[in-house]
Specification:
48% of the residues lie in helices and 14% in strands. It is elongated. It comes from Capitella teleta.
Length: 252
């Protein structure tokens, strides 16, 4: 585990002990999902009698009625939404909102984020949320969040600059084909350490964006995908055999 990730895991755990609503804030590539998964695994291993379960959804990919519930205009029958179903069925679970915070849907959770922890539905029903349930929001920014929502949640900010590209590359190297000799992995790691920071600085200085800037980690992922495709081709056509093939074939 990377030291910066370990520190964020500790921060997330300490905040979840204080508040039942926590926001993981930061741009893409900061490791929000990884930190959450690490804490979930750690708590599950610690409390073996009851593993930590999660219910994850993107609030922006469904309609508001599908999120909280709605009444059929023809039959006047009420149908629970995803959040209402989770609140009814689970007492100890992490409800993860992995998507942009929007006032259209997040304001309805203010009563849940209060100390009363009550979910108020449009049909007048009130659902008491279990004391073991936690609400986690994974968001890029809080530009659309109201002060009422922000004041009810704990915050853990994660910056991709703090994490860097090294953890992703180290993980990628571990998942390369087994035919790749250890000397080849070592050489690839040295090439990344020697060239990536210089390349990112060059791109940042001289490129002209036609649209929104691309995150640096996305560039690294693209490069690793190209190299993976090259290694798959080499594996299908005779394997690596000679470790010197990596040295002569790869130039970053």
């Amino acid at each position: 585990m990377w030291p910066s990730q370990l520190e964020k895991v500790k921060q997330l755990h300490s905040q979840m002990l204080v508040r039942h609503g926590v926001m993981l804030v930061g741009p893409t590539g900061g490791g929000k999902s990884t930190v959450r998964n690490l804490l979930q695994r750690a708590l599950s291993n610690r409390h073996r009698k009851g593993a930590v379960n999660t219910f994850s959804l993107n609030p922006k990919c469904v309609k508001l009625g599908e999120l909280y519930g709605e009444t059929n205009p023809n039959t006047f029958e009420w149908t629970d939404g995803l959040i209402a179903l989770a609140a009814r069925q689970f007492a100890k679970e992490w409800l993860i909102m992995d998507g942009p915070v929007d006032t259209l849907w997040v304001e309805n959770l203010n009563t849940v984020l209060d100390d009363s922890k009550v979910l108020c539905l449009a049909n007048g029903e009130r659902i008491n949320v279990g004391h073991g349930m936690r609400l986690l929001f994974e968001v890029d920014d809080l530009s659309q969040a109201s002060p009422a929502t922000v004041s009810r949640c704990a915050m853990v900010y994660m910056d991709p600059v703090d994490l860097g590209w090294q953890p992703f590359v180290r993980t990628w190297l571990c998942h390369l084909p087994r035919d790749l000799p250890e000397s080849g992995r070592t050489h690839l790691s040295a090439l990344f350490d020697h060239s990536v920071d210089r390349g990112l600085a060059f791109v940042k200085l001289y490129r002209k964006h036609l649209m929104l800037p691309t995150p640096e980690l996305s560039l690294i992922k693209c490069m690793c995908s190209i190299l993976s495709a090259l290694f798959d081709f080499m594996t299908k056509h005779g394997g690596f055999g000679n470790p010197g093939e990596i040295v002569t074939s790869v130039r970053l």
